């Protein structure tokens, strides 16, 4: 019974983290050498998802892309979090190309997008990202002299390296608005690149296909951003001064 419980827990955990990992582990239980079987099955299902997800309205951005729009880390591809509606990918490609045309050599980095299948399936820890119509982008960073760092983020996965600024949100334990103060000293001390971030967000605001963009209010003010599409995500949702949330 304890072993069965552990297998069920593993299936649940892998499903929540990668969507298809639970299936791979369940099938691997049929084999004597389970770990190699799981690795092979997971790889096979991941490749199969790349081919089948477009039939259901979602496409993957490859971690092997070398153009203006790239995944920030192979981790997002390995966990199947790099899927979105083709229309959203088209918007992102065009926006990245616009920034790169203004500032040659700029790399726009994608963080979490969505899973390949099933509208309504949660992409933890996000409150949304469950329908292929949402995507997170990393901010652009520069050094103290204003020189851009191509393809760089302050934290290894792009999240949780917050830009400090005024907030009207009260402390509340029942919230995803983590400050993670103990982590902040570990991150790189890059600053935001105002010009690149401004042109990216302004380009997305001007795109009729985009419905909402979440940016922390203090960054909206410091970057000089305006537009009804730029919203505050609310005090119970995750902070958005470490990434930009974009949705159709």
State the strand order across the main sheet.
5-10-8-9
Tally of DSSP β-strands: 10
Silhouette:
globular
Q: Low-confidence stretches at least 5 residues in length (pLDDT < 50)? A: none
The helicity comes to 25-40%
| Helix and strand element order | HHHEEHEHEEEEHEHEE
Tell me what portion of residues adopts beta-strand conformation.
Answer: 5-15%
Distance between the termini: 46 Å
Rg on CA atoms, Å: 19 Å
Number of helices: 7
Protein structure class: alpha/beta
Largest sheet: 4 strands, mixed
What is the mean pLDDT?
A: 93
3D architecture notes:
- With 248 residues, this protein is of the alpha/beta class.
- The protein has helices at 2-18, 21-28, 34-52, 74-78, 86-102, 194-206, 217-222; strands at 59-60, 69-71, 83-84, 108-110, 134-138, 141-142, 191-192, 212-214, 230-231, 243-247.
- The chain is globular and about 60 Å long.
- Helix 7 links the parallel strand 8 and strand 9.
- Strands 5-10-8-9 form a four-stranded mixed beta sheet, covered by helices on one side. A two-stranded antiparallel sheet has the order 1-3.
- Helix 1 runs antiparallel to helix 2 and helix 5 packs across helix 6.
- The longest helix is centred in the first third of the chain and has 19 residues, at 34-52.
Kindly list the characteristics that best describe this protein.
single chain; 248 residues; alpha/beta; 7 helices; 10 strands; globular
Topology (SSEs and partners):
Blueprint: H1 2-18, H2 21-28, H3 34-52, E1 59-60, E2 69-71, H4 74-78, E3 83-84, H5 86-102, E4 108-110, E5 134-138, E6 141-142, E7 191-192, H6 194-206, E8 212-214, H7 217-222, E9 230-231, E10 243-247
Parallel strand pairs: 2-4, 8-9
Antiparallel strand pairs: 1-3, 5-10, 6-7, 8-10
